[in-house]
Amino acid sequence: MSIGPVMADVQGLELQAEEREILQHPAVGGVILFSRNYESAEQVHQLADDIHRLRQPPLLIAVDQEGGRVQRFRDGFFRLPPVGRLGAIYQKDHHQALRLAQEAGWLMASEILSVGVDLSFAPVLDLDLGVSAVIGDRAFHRKPQVVTELALAYQRGMHQAGMASVGKHFPGHGGVVADSHHSLPEDGRSLADLQMEDLIPFERLMHNNLNGIMAAHVLYPQIDSQPAGFSRRWLTGVLRQMLGFQGVIFSDDLSMGGAEWAGDYPQRAHMALQAGCDMVLVCNQPEQAARVIESLSDYNDPAAHLRLARMHGSAFPDRGTLTACKRWQSATALLEQCEPERWLDMDLE
Predict the structure, then answer these.
(1) CA distance 194 to 175
(2) Which of 181, 193, 305, 347 is catalytic?
(3) Catalytic residue selected from 252, 253, 270, 278
(4) Interval 182-229: pLDDT, tens
(5) Is 305 annotated in the active site?
(6) Is residue 181 flagged as an active site residue?
């Protein structure tokens, strides 16, 4: 059985019988976990093992574990600082900031891999242009060159741990006020303007082994009449053909307000896949996810299967072995010094 085009979610701390059944549907290719799926490292490791054992090749398991406001696994995991903090440190000591970014990427990835989860949707490659509250300190910095340097270091750490990287939210969510979780934002800039700013980190990381990209539910009316995540112009024309990206393209969650433009859930999924996505996410709507999965029963994209198969995480030591290793101890000690204040959680489910 190949890896299907749908990433769904599950409701609790362990799989229910109906979830086991639907996750074995050939249109399913992955599972995304949220805070509701996490009680302890041991529990989530058992959940990941149960998901992986359902079929071969195993389903991909993903989570949003950026740090700061967006960290699904908390108790028992290191509380990672928002990456915007690393950008602030860069202003004073860029060598130290790059070291922190690499260790943050390694620590995030190693802890996630140690409980059997394949990937975190990171790094964020958006720019903090001072207008998007939903992005804010989830972005490394305002300047694209600084974002690029820090994100490359962060990705290097992820790769050292054995995790694929997924840059988001292409081609950039930082220039809009509206939150795409609730509505469809519009960015009135031209492609030339975006190439001078927002696209720089994406393009640079693509040429340095970026494994995946998540597309934004943002409309750029000067470039196309369709939002980027549903736009063949953006995903096939710009991303694949102009920029030469060969990795996996993920949609953002199709249950977000920014996706309502594309119609009902099956229509959203088909439009995103036809535009160039390899995998679509359907979160927090189990009945709608089932409709999407059924509508894609006959869908087959061999090139997407090959790309998705490369996203599985490397085998990693268990939690006890990890926390006893010198790098984990030095990384946590280093990162504890860079975020003296606590931060609000942003548990978008």
Answers:
(1) 10
(2) 181
(3) 252
(4) 999 999 999 999 999 999 999 999 999 999 999 999 999 999 999 999
(5) no
(6) yes
